Amino acid sequence: MTGDQGLPRLNRGTRPKPPIRIVHLGLGAFHRSHQAWYTQHAGDAAEWGIAAFTGRRPDAADVLAEQDGVFTVVERSGRGDSFEVVGSIVEAVDGSDVGRLTELVAAPTTAVITLTITESAYAADIAGSAEGSTPLARLVTALAARRDAESGPIAVVSCDNLAENGDVARQAVGALARARDGGLAAWIDANVSFVSTSVDRITPRTTQADLDVVAASCGYRDLAAVVTEPFHNWILSGDFPAGRPHWEDAGAVFVDHIEPFENRKLWLLNGSHSILAYAGLLRGHATVAEALSDDVCRGAVEAFWDEASRHLSGDELQIPKYRKALLERFGNSRIAHHLIQIAMDGTTKLRMRAVPVLAAERSAGRSGDGAARMIAAWLAYVSSTTELQDPLAADIQDAKTLDGEHRTAALVALISTELANDAATVSQIHGQLDSFAATTSHA
Ligand SMILES: NC(=O)c1ccc[n+]([C@@H]2O[C@H](COP(=O)([O-])OP(=O)(O)OC[C@H]3O[C@@H](n4cnc5c(N)ncnc54)[C@H](O)[C@@H]3O)[C@@H](O)[C@H]2O)c1
Ligand SMILES: O=P(O)(O)OC[C@@H](O)[C@@H](O)[C@H](O)[C@H](O)CO
């Protein structure tokens, strides 16, 4: 029992309600701590309201709608918490309400569509979603309405942890549009700008304990609060043909070439997160901070970083400083970032976090042992559990019916067929399976 039942519920009160000019798909914790926060901190925030749609369930929209869209961002550092009410989301909608999505995307006043639909949602859509119930299928329906309304060009901004996320979104949306109507695909090609971004702000799932802290500290009940680290970063590359908020006022950076920044973040931060997730869970840890304090996990992270750093060139990347900052961010034990959350959807994530580094090291004539160990940790982890959330969960279970190196090859194939076809790489990964837990069985 939280003891906060007598407190008033957070509501908008006299806070301004900017007009909707941004539509967001994937109303999760990260959208609230990142894009909504940046929009609130733009100098022209009064002109930019967000209508945010959930992905699979209405819950987050229901809770936020009860608060007229406002919520608390708790910035949690090693020293303490600070609280800020964010009001940039002005409408929270159940994602299944395609009518409202269509209406908003078709409006000429809407200029930007942002996405945090998870990495797997792009692949699922590429595979085809005839029933139109996935976020990108809904987006294509809404873009068709924008074309019909002659409301002009618009920007789609992927904020998911994917390499070249703008291009991935373009291809997925394009494939879906072509399957429906070639004319629509051509219109999208000519009128929709797909912006690539690198997004960063560690934001774990909110817990009841977090909500209790907000109630005790702020004197109101907020069921949509998010807890995040003070650090925030947003690098964007691409055009905004209908305008955008002045996000640079909040620290966003616009660049011509995003790839080095994307790789730095995806490999050094997300890659090491994956190592800590699988190795840490195998070794009995629950959070990032706990896993990092284990020398075996920390050693695996450092070895992977050494390899990845060789393929991240350019003074502007400031790799030593970035690595040092990551150790501090991961070590913030006041943020309970649960490894089990990071461990989800491993097949999709490792394709971007381990495979490119392993391939680059191999091409340079080195072993790529650090990257191979990330894959080995994933393999050992999926072998040790039946509770998996992964788009290829059924294939993982099938592969687990095999033994020894056959099993390893079958599991590696779910991440990269090229690696799986290379017997030396399969043996290399197989040989590392016991790196993290002697008790795990891979027979
Ligand atoms: N949380 C972070 O620290 C963080 C940081 C950087 C980037 N991101 C990116 O943001 C994404 C979302 O993170 P979050 O913390 O908000 O997660 P979340 O679980 O809180 O929210 C994700 C949203 O996407 C929807 N969704 C999830 N899977 C879906 C699917 N397969 N199809 C359709 N909709 C789906 C959910 O319903 C929800 O609306 C991540 O996958 C990642 O790509 C997160
Ligand atoms: O969000 P995911 O599931 O892609 O990855 C899990 C974490 O690595 C990720 O959320 C990081 O915390 C985040 O990318 C930091 O900005």
Task: Considering the chains and any ligands shown, give keywords for the structure.
11 strands; globular; 2 domains; 8-stranded mixed sheet; 443 residues; 3-stranded mixed sheet; N-(1-d-carboxylethyl)-l-norvaline Dehydrogenase, domain 2; binds D-Mannitol-1-phosphate; alpha/beta; Rossmann fold; binds nicotinamide-adenine-dinucleotide
What topology does this entry show?
Layout: E1 20-25, H1 29-33, H2 35-40, E2 49-53, H3 59-66, E3 71-76, E4 81-86, E5 89-93, H4 98-106, E6 112-115, H5 119-126, H6 135-149, E7 154-158, H7 165-180, H8 182-191, E8 192-200, H9 208-218, E9 226-228, E10 233-237, E11 253-254, H10 259-282, H11 288-292, H12 295-309, H13 319-330, H14 339-343, H15 346-353, H16 355-363, H17 369-384, H18 393-399, H19 404-413, H20 417-420, H21 423-430
Parallel strand pairs: 1-2, 1-6, 2-5, 3-9, 6-7, 7-8, 10-11
Antiparallel strand pairs: 3-4, 8-10
Helix pairs in contact: 4-6, 5-7, 6-7, 7-8, 10-12, 10-15, 10-17, 12-17, 17-21, 19-21
This protein binds nicotinamide-adenine-dinucleotide and D-Mannitol-1-phosphate.
How does this structure look, described?
By secondary structure, the chain is of the alpha/beta class. The chain has two domains: 20-256, Rossmann fold (3-Layer(aba) Sandwich); 260-431, N-(1-d-carboxylethyl)-l-norvaline Dehydrogenase, domain 2, CATH 1.10.1040. Helix content is 48%, strand content 13%. The protein has helices at residues 29-33, 35-40, 59-66, 98-106, 119-126, 135-149, 165-180, 182-191, 208-218, 259-282, 288-292, 295-309, 319-330, 339-343, 346-353, 355-363, 369-384, 393-399, 404-413, 417-420, 423-430, and strands at 20-25, 49-53, 71-76, 81-86, 89-93, 112-115, 154-158, 192-200, 226-228, 233-237, 253-254. The strands form two sheets. An eight-stranded mixed beta sheet has the order 5-2-1-6-7-8-10-11. Strands 4-3-9 form a three-stranded mixed beta sheet. It starts with 19 loop residues before the first strand and ends in a 13-residue tail after the last helix. The model is unreliable at 438-443 (pLDDT under 50). D-Mannitol-1-phosphate binds next to helix 10.
